[in-house]
């Protein structure tokens, strides 16, 4: 399984970015799976940002609720993270991850990350 993120960059506060995660070797046809986005800011621990499971159920960290939206396009084997109203505290390396387990479990597959910087 290979996950490749894209879409990061430098953006001003209040603006938007959409991250993409292209998956190869990962099948969405399994009865159970979860794909998620995590981030790690400098000097901080990695935290979960959003996840979507095989039932289409989504979950979000409190800090991004109402601003970020996770989605997936099974035909393209790609998941997305739409980030609106970005804040400086959203600055971090963003990673996509996948598992054939519940979203509450461990993620087995990780991308290399894409950097998001929010600054004026």
Topology of this structure?
Layout: E1 2-6, E2 9-11, E3 17-24, E4 34-40, E5 47-53, E6 58-60, E7 68-73, E8 78-83, E9 92-99, E10 109-110, E11 114-118
Parallel strand pairs: 2-11
Antiparallel strand pairs: 1-3, 3-8, 4-5, 4-9, 5-6, 7-8, 9-10, 9-11
Observed structural traits:
7-stranded mixed sheet; 11 strands; 120 residues; globular; mainly beta; 4-stranded antiparallel sheet
Give an overview in words.
With 120 residues, this protein is mainly beta. Helix content is 0%, strand content 50%. The protein has no helices and eleven strands. The chain has strands spanning 2-6, 9-11, 17-24, 34-40, 47-53, 58-60, 68-73, 78-83, 92-99, 109-110, 114-118. The strands form two sheets. Strands 2, 4, 5, 6, 9, 10 and 11 form a seven-stranded mixed β-sheet that branches. β7 (68-73) and β8 (78-83) form a beta hairpin. The radius of gyration is 13 Å and the shape is globular. The mean pLDDT is 93.
In short:
The chain is mostly beta strands. The protein is 0% helix and 50% strand.
